[in-house]
Amino acid sequence: MPAELTINEAAHLAGVSAKLIEKSVESGILPAEKVTDGLTHRATRRLPLAAVPFLSVINDAWLRDLPLARKRHLWLLVSRSRLVNEAQLAEVRLNETITLDLEGMAGSRTRLALAYRAARDAHLVSDDAVMGGTPVIRGTRLTVYSVLGRLVGGDSMAELVADYPEIPEAAFAAAATYARTHPLRGRPSGRPWAPEAAQRH
Predict the structure, then answer these.
(1) 107 within 8 A of 100, measured Cβ to Cβ
(2) Are 25 and 71 a contacting pair, CB within 8 Å?
(3) Is 48 helix (H, G, I), strand (E, B) or coil?
(4) pLDDT tier at 87 (50, 70, 90 boundaries)?
(5) What pLDDT digit, counting tens, does each position of 98-146 carry?
(6) How far apart are CA 78 and CA 73, in angstroms?
(7) What domains can you pick out in the chain, each with its CATH number?
(8) What is the reported pLDDT for 48?
(9) Is the distance from CB of 24 to CB of 71 less than 8 angstroms?
């Protein structure tokens, strides 16, 4: 099972705390693999995308206090589940009498994670010769932090698309999520979303 999401990405997409994920990794429930991030070029722990539906499920008030062995079993079931007709998550049968509505509990977040992974890998790149290696939208000098800065500053996604019609909305959404889950280290200098930071490559 490929390691596809950082802990912060999985936490953001599943709507849980990074602390919950750290605890799940330390307990041996979730597998975390150390890989070199293609955008930051730093070694980081990554999780399978199936961590998103699993985390969404165990964050439910009824399942949060499951014993460790049950959570491990639940991870195996969720990680092996599949989309039905490429749109819905299949039900997960816990035993003869209990079935989890995985689609209702985690379907929308799982599709969000799938869309983010695809857009991140398709549209975000890092090159030391462009903006000092800060991740940008492919073919531009528009950094992920400038995208997030504009959204935080009050611009809408529609305004971004209108300003850059050649860039798909999915690229902007991925850039904003990436920036949120990979905050800049140290004190930022100036405003990374200023117009000069958004020049084309």
Answers:
(1) no
(2) no
(3) coil
(4) low
(5) 898 999 999 999 999 999 999 999 999 999 999 999 999 999 999 999 9
(6) 9
(7) 5-122 (1.10.1660), 126-198 (1.10.10.10)
(8) 94
(9) yes
Strands 43-47 and 33-36: antiparallel
Ramachandran bin of 25, using left for φ above 0, alpha for ψ from -120 to 50, beta for the remaining angles:
alpha
Q: Give the model's pLDDT for residue 152.
A: 95
Q: The tokens of 196 are what?
A: 């000069």
6 forms bridges with which residues in the sheet?
46
Which parts of the chain are beta strand (E)? 5-6, 33-36, 43-47, 83-84, 88-89, 92-93, 99-100, 124-125, 136-137
Tokens standing for 138? Answer: 């492919």
Q: Which DSSP state fits 94?
A: -
pLDDT band with cut points at 50, 70 and 90 for residue 83: low
Tell which residue, 76, 44, 57, has the closest CA to residue 14: 57
